Structure formats: C-alpha cells, structure tokens
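Lesson 9: reading folded outputs for more than one chain in a single document. The general rule is that every protein is listed as its sequence immediately followed by its structure tokens, and records are never interleaved. Here is the first one.
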Amino acid sequence: MQGKPKKVVIIGPESTGKSTLSHALAQHYKEPWVEEFARGYIESLNREYQYADLLEIAQGQMKMEDAKAQEAKDLLFCDTDLHVIQVWSEHKYRKTASWVLEEIKKRAYDLYLLTDIDIPWEADPQREHPEPDMRQFFYDWYERLLSGTGVPVAKISGNLQQRLAKSIAAIEENFLKVR
C-alpha cells in the first residue's frame, strides 16, 4: 500500500477486548497502534472524572493518533475513537462538547471493528457498567452510530484467536487484498 495509512478503529463496550485485539493486530501487521488515552489520564486524577475531562481526553487521544499515524506505513490501529467520547458524554452528562462533534465530522477512518459483548466481564476500577443489559445497550448504541458513518463495520466476536482471525479477514477483505 502507498499513501496515508488505513485507519482501523477497534470500538465497542467496556471489557470487550479492544486493547488486547488492538495490540494483537499491531503485532500481526507490524504496525503501530494508538492506545486508549483515557486510561492513563483517569489514573492520574485524584478524583472522579468530570465532564470537562472528556474534552481533555478527546484532545489527548487525537494527539496520540496523529503522532502514531506518522509512524504507520500501511495501517494504524486505533483502540477507540471520538465516538466513544460522544457516547460516554451523552450517557453520563447528556451533552457532548462541540469540539468533539466537529472532530468526528473531520476525522476519516477506513474500517471499524465492533467488539461484541460475548466475552466475560473483567472488573476494573475504570469500568462502570458490568450489567449484561447495559453492555448490550452500549453495543447497540455503537452499532447505530457506526452505521451512519459510511465506513465499513465488521462485528467481531469469539475468543481472542477467533476475534483476531475475523479482524484480519475483515482487514484483508476491505483493503489489503492487493498487499
């Protein structure tokens, strides 16, 4: 491939293996991945995160993404995008910063890998909604949001090996056949 790297976003509800899958794909393709900025940001707070923090997280995530895009040859794996900020902001605060909404319109991605809730919940101090109905609620929300982007969406389920295989197949099918 030549030109700008293709951006693959791994997205889905909490505790659906996004970071693990992002890392595995980056290793498989020997390409960079953009880690989730929110994790480190929230860990550094000595308080609960607030609405204003979501804009800081969004801007930090985009800075990391832009920096990693400079390192990518053919592919860049993004462990989240601004749709996640939008969903959390709307769910928790019933509003989203205009900067986030404008950036969503400007940013271009090439493939979304939507991770299913079919793996067990793993407790983590930063995770908020372990209930099965809430996991489904967020999965459905992401699915609706992504369906309006015009970008291909592959639903990824199963254990890690199955998720990796399905993700690789979706990547190959969408834009790496000629590689």
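And here is the second record, again sequence then tokens.
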Amino acid sequence: MRTVRVYTKPQCAQCTMTKTLLGAHGIPFIEEDATEPGNLAAIKELGFLAAPVVTAGDSLDDMWAGFQPDRIKEIAERFNKLEEK
C-alpha cells in the first residue's frame, strides 16, 4: 500500500476525527500541514478545497476531502489484506 497522507489545518474537527479513525484502524499515516504554500498548491491542483485531504494512492479514487469514515474503512480493509500476505 502506498503511504497514506493526511493534509490538515489547525483546529479542524474533521481533521482530528480523520486522524483518530485512521489510528483506530491501525493505518499508519503522515500528517502534512495543508496551510503551507507548497501543500496548499498541491491540494488545489488536485481539485480539493476542504480539509482534511487524504491521499491513499495515485488515482483520484484513492483521494478525498473531509471526514469520510466509509473511505477510511475501505483503506483499513485493503491494509489488512496486505498485512495478511
């Protein structure tokens, strides 16, 4: 599995919930500051305007914005399958 990155903003409830749920599922992730100019430009280039932005692969199907527990569950299932191999 590709590295999961979570682009967050300070004092963002959805960001906190996303990080908490990723951790609860045992999904390792790297947190990036969405307010840093380079990160902000990259997020906008992908078409996202809200935080958090989660990237879990190279395709847009593996990227999303906002707190999406169903998407996190999908990533957890894929992560667990890779761990079993």
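What the second record shows: The helical segments are 13-24, 37-46, 69-84.
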